[in-house]
Amino acid sequence: MAMTEPAPSAVTTAHEGILRRQSARESAARTYARALPIVPVRARGLTIEGADGRRYLDCLSGAGTLALGHNHPVVLEAIRKVLDSGAPLHVLDLATPVKDAFTTELFRTLPEEFARRARIQFCGPAGTDAVEAALKLARTATGRDGLLAFTGAYHGMTAGALEASGGARDVRVTRLPYPQDYRCPFGTGGPHGAELSARWTESLLDDSKSGVPRPAAMILEPVQGEGGVIPAPDDWMRRMRAVTAARDIPLIVDEVQTGVGRTGAFWAVEHSGVTPDIMVLSKAIGGSLPLAVIVYRDDLDVWGPGAHAGTFRGNQLAMAAGTATLAHVRENGLAERAAQLGARMLAQLRALAAEQPCIGDVRGRGLMIGVELVDPAAAVLTAPGPPPAAPELAAAVQRACLRRGLIIELGGRDASVIRLLPPLNLTDEQASAVLDRLADAITTTARTLSTGR
């Protein structure tokens, strides 16, 4: 459904002025602001209101940070309670009642076997800080330096995290094939493709001539997010756990985006029953505020005081907001809700794909959904494989969605995957509105680009 454009006014002029000043003052490295030229001034739940008076359905959710949407009452109340109490807001890594409550609630949500022997390190404000801590811990505990990571991965923007992300060129990182059906690196897809991926990994580790010494750790995402919403097969996850355990290689699972119910389980590792050695957590655990931790097996806790620090690792407001978010998701069964609603949304998107040849693949888990757009006219050039990705079409669809009052993100290796990360408390009516606007944007844009009208 298209949104009605407001008449030009002083409000619209102010909105445009803010955008002009941002463009003139901010770095060329800004990203979301380029694709989403809006100025949010108010938000609640799924909805953002811009400075120009327009309303948008937000399926970006702070890149997955907002498990409960914008300004959820339980989060706001938790923040107000800390502010009104006179508690210190900045405490470095000192113990506080707020921190104790957060740690207790977090450990309550962890897989039981993992929680029994867990230790936690508060790392700093962002997920990339936690990734750095995880890599440092594994290297300290093993005395080894190398790292196993996967094609298409994204783990953050600091040096060590970038080493482990797809596209890096660091000699200490051995890049492994991540299994997927639609663009399988081995051309087969399905269980056979995942089996070949596992064999590749075993061969590299066991062949004395491979040039890959035993590494400090393997790091992986249970669902690749920035890589294009690619869920790892559960059997493959169990195989990676067996491969690493048999060779005394710590397994680091990056749950920064997949955690807190996003995939239909509280933690994505629960789908496969895998117990990692280290979990990297951020985004939703802070209830919309900056917070990042690693949780790990107690026998890895061999680093000394100050081995990993950070001035803002004691963010009391984030811990309070995080405690409220974790408890609300757990007590209200929102992970289960994400599984059920996500399955229905995926089914409806697959029905749309059957009608729209520009949709190459629909995939995801829970409310972490991806729609890959392709160029069907160029399919003959890639036969028998899938058609080439269509990044220009994807960008045009994103713009069309914004005109219809829908905020989406693009990802994938060619920025051709529409990513949906709505709040876990999305209603059925809101889900229908999201899919209606997305379907209209895809259909209209594909027709316009193919006919020129």
UniProtKB/TrEMBL annotation:
Pathway note: Amine and polyamine biosynthesis; ectoine biosynthesis; L-ectoine from L-aspartate 4-semialdehyde: step 1/3
Species of the source: Streptomyces uncialis
Record-linked Pfam families: Aminotran_3 (PF00202)
UniProt KW Nucleotidyltransferase keyword: no
Enzyme class: transferase
Keywords (A to Z) from UniProt: Aminotransferase, Pyridoxal phosphate, Transferase
Keyword Coiled coil among record annotations: no
Enzyme Commission number, as recorded: 2.6.1.76
SUPFAM superfamilies in the record: PLP-dependent transferases
Cofactor(s) recorded in Swiss-Prot or TrEMBL: pyridoxal 5'-phosphate
The name this protein goes by in its record: Diaminobutyrate--2-oxoglutarate transaminase
Family assignment from sequence similarity: Belongs to the class-III pyridoxal-phosphate-dependent aminotransferase family.
Annotated GO MF terms: diaminobutyrate-2-oxoglutarate transaminase activity; pyridoxal phosphate binding
InterPro entries listed in its UniProt record: Aminotrans_3, Aminotrans_3_PPA_site, Dat, PyrdxlP-dep_Trfase, PyrdxlP-dep_Trfase_major, PyrdxlP-dep_Trfase_small
Source superkingdom: Bacteria
